[in-house]
Amino acid sequence: MSNMYDPKFGLSVSYQANATPEEYVGRLKRFGFTAAELNIPYIEKHADGISLFRDELRRLSCHLPHDRPHKALASDPAEDARVLERQKRNIELAASVGCRTFVFHLGNVVGQRLEDYWERSVVFARRLGELARQVDSVVGVENCLPVVGRAEVARRFLDAVDHENLGMTLDTGHFWSILQENDVGRHKENPLKCTDEGNRLLNTMCTDMARTVNTKIFNIHIHNLRYEDWKDHQPVDHGVMQYDDLFAVLEQQNYDRAVIIEIGSDGDWSGFESSAAYLQRFA
Question: In this model, does residue 4 exceed pLDDT 60?
Fold first, then answer.
């Protein structure tokens, strides 16, 4: 990799929610990482020390609360305005401590087909982008079913929203769930699960998403999946996902935003340590 390619690697604070800002920033700086992803509960809990992230790191993002059961749009469209008002307060709070990228699960209406709530989702996302614009920030909606589940749908959706402050957070581990939901958002068992063919398909879907969405990728969550059950949020350095092709695409696109390690807490820092060591090969 050329020295001009310098993704801003970082860590989600959800990994060790009880860690102090000093502990988090210390771990990040040890690896030369320059980014972190906060969340609203962590910002509120550590109000007195949260400025350390802003002072010591170059890139801060915030994962906004899901706000709805199962990360889905409410069945009542009137609820959208109330959700946006709550997210406006969250965005303003996070922006006040230095966050300039926001992550949101747009979700779906379970039991309805995409075309039934496509326009509603477009309008909601556009308004979310406008909230970010007001604080000189951007929002990346995660690639969840069904609105931004597959590459061609994601590109069409982002083009329909057509807001410069609204793009995607590419979550590299979400593609397993996309393969295991039907077109009305309900679980289905996929015969490709935990097979070599399925593993290859997940990697292809991830790389295709990066290539297709291109400059509308505003943030990346990176983790891995266990071979035996496709359980996600595993340390980056071992599992189904192989990231050489993805980072080759990102380098071609001159991607210069954050790449956030998003793994489940295991009670110590070992998962972050091994993930960070693995990612250094792409710096």
Answer: no
Is residue 219 in some structural domain?
Answer: yes
* Secondary element (H or E) of residue 52: helix 51-56
Nearest to 137 by CA among 56, 219, 32: 219
144 and 71 Cβ atoms separated by less than 8 Å: yes
Angle (CA) 145 151 153, round 5°? 60
- How far apart are alpha carbons 152 and 164 in whole angstroms? 19
Q: In this structure, what token pair is assigned to residue 245?
A: 């092709």
Bridge partners (DSSP) of residue 37 are 12, 61
Structural domain contains residue 242: yes
Handedness of CA 228, 230, 231, 234 (dihedral sign): positive
Which residues lie across from 60 on neighbouring strands? 36
- Is residue 176 a contact partner of residue 232, using CB atoms and an 8 Å limit? yes
The model's pLDDT over 189-201, given as tens digits with 9 standing for 90+, comes to 889 999 999 999 9
Q: Give the count of domains, the chain.
A: 1
In 3D, which of 238, 227, 280, 243 has the Cα closest to residue 263?
A: 238
Cβ count near 125 (within 10 Å): 24
pLDDT at 74: 67
Of 154, 145, 176, 184, the closest CA to residue 241 belongs to 176
Considering the domain boundaries, does residue 3 fall inside one? no
Predicted pLDDT at 106: 87
Q: How many CB atoms lie under 10 A from the CB of residue 110? A: 15
Q: Which domain holds residue 97?
A: 8-282
- On whether residue 19 sits in a domain, the answer given is yes
Q: How confident is the model at residue 6 (pLDDT cuts 50, 70, 90)?
A: low
Q: How far is CA 191 from CA 179, 207, 241, in A?
A: 10, 22, 18
- pLDDT attached to residue 111: 79
Question: What does the alpha-carbon distance between residue 111 and residue 82 come to, in Å, rounded to a whole number?
Answer: 22
CATH number at residue 141: 3.20.20.150
